[in-house]
């Protein structure tokens, strides 16, 4: 439940219009009513290898395109908590985008990457590094891939009370960035097996779920080249799904 200190009234002139960032895949864009919205906290959850990171890499390139191509003409911030950032794949996508849009622009120059190993380093990045970057650069997309990776631990004596406080703090800061700078915020999340229901669910529990505004889920299906993109909950989208594929060119409609 949100603290009452976070809830306040605003006059209409202080409310900013949201931006929409296309994924360049008409099936998913139609599902999202044009693309991912700014000013809110979006989550993309799914199994390992389902395509979560692929979507984020493509968005990091598309955000740099002019609005007539579905972009925001802005740069991207990519916070990676996994062991290895997929730089080879990003180079491949960069080459394809140069070819597709007939430009020599190096899209990699406008993707700012930082590797984050734990919560303490993330807090330093969110309180110091990222605010400084947002003041200097016009950022349209902030990705954390993955939010669950911050809390990965072999310690069995985890304080869930402390973790809930940490998750609330992260969510609050990200929402503030989204509102102040009108940028798209996407947190990738892993999934875990619910032993009671036997279903796969996004990690980090109820505290994090209550912080997320829009939750999307990706799963693989047969044939394995196909993926399913689902809207789990969102205040402005209906619960629906569509199929898509991941190719060397990025994210494309299912054939």
Descriptive report:
There is one protein chain. The chain has 255 residues and is α/β, with parallel strands linked by helices. The protein has a single domain, classed as P-loop containing nucleotide triphosphate hydrolases (Rossmann fold, 3-Layer(aba) Sandwich), CATH 3.40.50. Helices cover 31% and strands 26% of the residues. It has helices at 26-31, 52-62, 87-100, 119-136, 160-181, 205-211; strands at residues 20-21, 36-37, 41-46, 75-80, 111-115, 139-145, 184-189, 191-193, 200-202, 214-220, 226-233, 241-247, 250-253. Strands 5-4-6-7-3-10-11-12-13 form a nine-stranded mixed β-sheet, with helices on both faces. A two-stranded antiparallel ribbon has the order 1-2. Strands 8-9 form a two-stranded antiparallel sheet. Helix 4 packs parallel to helix 5 (160-181). The protein is globular, with a radius of gyration of 18 Å. It starts with 19 loop residues before the first strand and ends with a strand. Residues 1-5 have low confidence and may be disordered.
Helix residue percentage: 25-40%
User: What CATH architecture would you give?
Assistant: 3-Layer(aba) Sandwich
SSE class: alpha/beta
Per CATH, the class reads Alpha Beta
Walk me through the topology:
Elements: E1 20-21, H1 26-31, E2 36-37, E3 41-46, H2 52-62, E4 75-80, H3 87-100, E5 111-115, H4 119-136, E6 139-145, H5 160-181, E7 184-189, E8 191-193, E9 200-202, H6 205-211, E10 214-220, E11 226-233, E12 241-247, E13 250-253
Helix pairs in contact: 4-5
Domain RecA family profile: 17-191
InterPro entries: P-loop_NTPase (IPR027417), Rad51_C (IPR013632), RecA_ATP-bd (IPR020588), XRCC3-like_C (IPR047348)
Protein name: RecA family profile 1 domain-containing protein
């Amino acid at each position: 439940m949100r603290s009452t200190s976070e809830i306040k009234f605003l006059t209409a002139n202080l409310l900013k219009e949201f931006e929409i960032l296309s994924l360049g895949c008409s099936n998913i864009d139609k599902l999202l009513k044009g693309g991912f919205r700014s000013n809110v906290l979006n989550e993309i959850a799914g199994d390992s290898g389902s395509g979560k990171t692929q979507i984020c890499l493509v968005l990091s390139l598309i955000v740099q395109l002019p609005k007539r191509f579905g972009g925001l003409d802005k740069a991207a911030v990519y916070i990676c908590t996994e062991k290895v950032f997929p730089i080879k794949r990003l180079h491949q996508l960069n080459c394809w985008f140069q070819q597709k849009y007939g430009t020599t622009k190096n899209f990699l120059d406008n993707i700012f990457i930082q590797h984050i190993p734990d919560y303490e380093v993330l807090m330093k990045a969110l309180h110091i590094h990222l605010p400084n970057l947002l003041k200097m650069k016009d950022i349209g997309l902030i990705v954390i891939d993955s939010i669950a990776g911050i809390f990965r631990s072999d310690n069995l004596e985890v304080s869930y009370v402390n973790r809930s406080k940490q998750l609330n703090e992260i969510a609050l800061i990200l929402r503030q960035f989204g509102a102040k700078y009108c940028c798209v915020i996407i947190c990738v999340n892993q999934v875990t097996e619910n032993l009671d229901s036997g279903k796969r669910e996004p990690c980090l529990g109820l505290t994090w779920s209550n912080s997320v505004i829009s939750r999307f889920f990706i799963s693989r299906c047969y044939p394995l080249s196909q993926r399913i993109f689902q809207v789990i909950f969102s205040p402005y989208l209906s619960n629906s799904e569509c199929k898509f594929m991941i190719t060397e060119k990025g994210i494309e409609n299912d054939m």
